[in-house]
Amino acid sequence: MPVTDVTTDADDLTMTVTADFAAPIERVWNAYSDPRQLERFWGPPGWPATFTAWDHTVGGRAVYTMNGPRGEKSTGVWEFLAIEEPHRFEVLDSFADEHGKPLDGFPAQRMSFTFDSTPEGTRMVTTSHFDSVDALEQVVEMGQVEGIKMAMGQLDAVLQDLRDYAQGKGTRVELLDDTHVRITRLVEGPRELVWRAHFEPDLIRQWMLGPDGWEMTECIAATEVGQSYRNSWAPVGDTEGEPFGFEGEALLIDAPRRAVTTERMRGMPTETVNDLSLYEEDGATLVTVLIEYPDKETRDMILATGMADGMEASFARLERELLAV
Predict the structure, then answer these.
(1) Mean pLDDT, range 289-311, rounded to an integer
(2) 3-class secondary structure, 322
(3) How far, in Å, CA of 199 to CA of 201, rounded?
(4) How open is the CA angle 67-36-192, to the nearest 5 degrees?
(5) How far apart are the first and last CA of the chain?
(6) pTM of the model
């Protein structure tokens, strides 16, 4: 996690975040001055941002909307107050309605971003200035501290070439907090095909099988919001194990980029929310699944089943059976 320190100061009415990145200052600056790169990390996991306006000049404005897993939206506006490439920029950040008009009753904050070269790369210090203690406390209570930490945790993937970041590292599991897990896997193939492999039953049956010795006995896909899906598996031949299945509903579909579904094991009341996103770069696709569990105990129980190993076997089969042809 690149964030090394978060400090709130009620006397100075500031919140300061310090983060270190293993990338040169020009590369980090580029990530903050390109809306397409910003969209990959501005917003915590599960709330990716979309910038709909971008005027990167002093006095210019940027408008972005963070999109929650259940269709929630939160819009903000940056007004650029200062730009000193590649060392500093400053914005007035305000909550806004869908038209980009600042909302009454929600605190605005002046945010200063500074970038300094270090022997290891770049240190970024972000200082947010507030008009009152109430405004500072309001954004803390809204979860901005944790949101910033989690958003910054996504920037490493943006700063590196995608293959340098993920190739050969298999299925990676990151514990973000007690109830959120992020799973990433780079697959060698275009995003459109990877998306189809997740949502077309004829393709799903060819790779989403977990370890060898299992077969998919039922596959009903959900391709529109509100639809239900069902997947079932059973052991083949001498393979040990009991048949099982998962089912759920589609909460958000944004083909071929993102899909959010609920998931529960057949016959069990426990439900998770699975947020799938696909990002393509130079012919490779980074598959990211953000899973929200109801509690830490459920998270640990499910991870202990060897879920990640089963996913890795499936992803390897996906590359071998579908993407290599």
Answers:
(1) 94
(2) helix
(3) 6
(4) 80
(5) 37
(6) 0.87
What is the average pLDDT across 269-290?
95
Task: Pull the structure tokens for residue 262.
Answer: 């609920």
Residue 35, sorted as left (phi over 0), alpha (psi -120 to 50) or beta, turns out to be alpha
Q: Of the candidates 183, 154, 174, which has an alpha carbon nearest to the alpha carbon of residue 310?
A: 183
Give pLDDT tens digits for 227-276: 999 999 999 988 898 999 999 999 999 999 999 999 999 888 899 999 99
The span from the CA of 16 to the CA of 61, in Å, is 23
Burial of 232 (0-12, 13-18, 19+ CB in 10 A): middle
How many C-beta atoms lie closer than 10 Å to residue 127's C-beta? 19
161: left (phi over 0), alpha (psi -120 to 50) or beta: beta
Residue 197 has pLDDT above 70, yes or no: yes
Whether 325 has a pLDDT exceeding 70, the answer reads no
Can you give the pLDDT at residue 1?
A: 66
CB count, 10 Å around CB of 64?
A: 23
Give me the residues paired with residue 271 across strands: none
pLDDT for position 61: 95
Please give the domain boundaries of the chain with CATH numbers for all domains.
3-157 (3.30.530.20), 163-323 (3.30.530.20)
Q: What integer pLDDT is reported at residue 296 of this predicted model?
A: 96
3-class DSSP state for residue 51? strand
Report yes or no: 283 and 189 within 8 Å, Cβ to Cβ: yes
What DSSP letter does each residue of 140-177 carry, written as one string? HHTTHHHHHHHHHTTHHHHHS-HHHHHTT--SEEEE-S
Smallest CA-to-CA distance from 75 within 93, 89, 59, 91 is with 93
Instruction: Give which of 157, 190, 194, 192 is closest to 281, Cα–Cα.
Output: 190
Q: Are strands 109-118 and 228-235 parallel, antiparallel or unpaired?
A: unpaired
**Cβ atoms of residues 273 and 72 within 8 Å:** no
Determine whether 73 is exposed, middle or buried from the number of CB atoms within 10 Å of its CB (0-12, 13-18, 19+).
exposed
User: Residue 218 to residues 157, 185, 233: CA-CA distances in angstroms?
Assistant: 35, 25, 7
